[in-house]
Amino acid sequence: MKNKGFHQTITVNASAHETYNKIARVGDWWARSFTGKALMVDDSFRIEFGDTWVNFKITEAVPGNKIVWHVTGSYLPWLKNKTEWTDTEVVFEILSEKNATKINFTHAGLVPEIECYKDCEKGWTRFITISLQKFIDAGKGLPE
Questions:
Q1: Among the four residues 35, 37, 107, 130, which has the most C-beta atoms within 10 Å?
Q2: Would you state the pLDDT for residue 98?
Q3: Closest CA to 75 of 111, 100, 50
C-alpha cells in the first residue's frame, strides 16, 4: 500500500474466500454495535463504542482478495479533532499461502503524527491479532 498508515499482518487457517467473508462479519470480531453491510462495493456500515462512532463505505471489494473500507464520517469524543478518522481507509489484503491465508491490514491515514495513533494502534492490534484471528481460526471473536 502506498499510503502511510498503521499495519498488521496475521496468518489464519482458512481459505481466502472464508477469510474475506469473516472480515465482513464486523460485529463478530470488532464491534457488537455494528449496523449495515460490509461485504460488497457500495455497502455501508456503522460501528459504535459508547459515544464514539464511525461510518464506512466499501469502495473496493474483490472477494477472496481485498476489501477497502472508506471512513465517511467519525466522532471520537476523547480527541481534540473528533473527526480524525474521516477520509481514512481501512484495507484488508488477503493472500493465499500453502495451507493458510495471510491478511495484510492497513489503516491508511492512521499515522504516528495524529493524536489518536497510540490508542488506536493498541485497539487495532487487539482486534486484528487477537479477535479477528480467533474469529477466523476458532469461530469466536472478542468484539467490543
A1: 107
A2: 87
A3: 50
